[in-house]
Amino acid sequence: MAYVTDGGDLKLYEDGKVYPMERGTPVKMHGSGYTIAYTTGGVLKVAEAGEPRTLCYDAPAFEVKDSLVVFHDRREQALMVHWRQRTFPIANVIMGDGSPDWAAGANMVTFFERASRMGFLFYRGETTVFAESTNSVQVAVGSDILGWSEDRDRSLRVMDHGETFDLEPFPPVNMKAGSGILAYTTVGQALKCYQGGQVYTVTEFPPTSYHVQDSLLVFVDQGMLKVFQEGRVEIVERFVPEQWAIWGGMLVYLDLNRRIRLYHHGVRQQISPEAGVARFDLFRGAVTYRSNSGATKVWWQGKIYEHY
Fold first, then answer.
1. How much is the pTM?
2. Domain count of the chain?
3. Dist CA 86 CA 231 (whole Å)
């Protein structure tokens, strides 16, 4: 965990110890998974125990995903990716063009180069071309999965762990990717899902909304909250919760009595014994909320911890 103290110092808490990162300087931080990066005075650094690692001395834009950091290095005029302790240039950025456009998933990055009319993919340390001779590419980037449709032939394709498959002859209306899962709505308005080498028709008609995160597809259909996982649709609740959050296949939500509940692989569980919870937060499997007594409570792996 990285945090800024009242005095403006940036510190890192890791494995029971606190490490100073920066003193009294404003920072912009992003974190995901086990990676935290920040800028101070335009300098981009990765927070590491002992001493932060400097990636770039002039980074106007950056993004952090579970296993990588994507950033625009203005000095080197390049789009860069930091992955597994190494930094890779993946595209040239001409001065005057501003910050480049990219799309990043947990372990993949795509970039469209207008001059060459090609779409590039960074995956597992290598940069390859996944689309060429096209004027635009629609993409959805997840973990080990990439869905895309280019204006050249308009079909929908997916790259799953490095293998490419054709899914649809027409481009999707929209699409979203997660961990090994790609959901999309077709021109016929059906909601479909690609997972594990198969395409499933989730609904014949468009849902009110749908969300993909990690391995879970959650959607609102006919006033009900539903999930699609492991090839089947299941109704979680016959109402739409005021708040819900997803992490790692877990769906946490407020019921009608404002109790916190958990759905995980078909099993429902009550997290908060008390009703009337105003809201909650979900941090990598830990659920935090303020109880009616004023205490802060944390649910973690079936147990509740309390702090006043």
1. 0.90
2. 3
3. 37
